[in-house]
Design goal:
The chain is mainly alpha-helical. The chain has two domains: 12-41; 52-105. 51% of the residues lie in helices and 11% in strands. It has four helices and two strands; from the N terminus they run H-E-E-H-H-H. The protein has helices spanning 14-40, 71-82, 86-97, 102-105, and strands spanning 52-57, 64-69. It has a two-stranded antiparallel ribbon with strand order 1-2. Helix 2 crosses helix 3 (86-97). The N and C termini lie far apart (77 Å).
């Protein structure tokens, strides 16, 4: 045992209490700012538009992103409209938002 008896608790001074309140307030403000940024930031991919497609799909860790632009996005959308699986059904609305419907994605 490191201590044979429990050490006596020391009372905090007013200055120590004030400092502790300031540190707690700063930590709380930082946490609130980070949470607000995470909730409101669209991320590096953003939404589907202008020939780029971003699809959120279920994955083992909760959710994954499929992102493609240009010819890769055209191929993704061509496959999405040709197939009937769940990921294809999730990709179709995003392809429409990006302007890559079946008629637009043909060469």
């Amino acid at each position: 045992m490191p201590f044979p008896t429990q050490p006596a608790a020391r009372r905090l001074t007013r200055r120590a209490k004030r400092r502790l309140a300031w540190v707690g307030g700063i930590v709380a403000a930082v946490v609130i700012a980070v949470v607000a940024w995470a909730a409101l930031s669209p991320g590096s991919y953003g939404g589907s538009r202008a020939g780029c497609v971003t699809v959120t799909v279920p994955s083992s860790t909760g959710g994954g992103l499929l992102h493609a632009c240009g010819s890769d996005a055209k191929a993704m959308c061509r496959n999405a409209f040709a197939r009937t699986d769940k990921i294809s059904r999730l990709a179709r609305p995003q392809c429409r938002l990006a302007g890559l419907t079946p008629a637009a994605s043909s060469p």
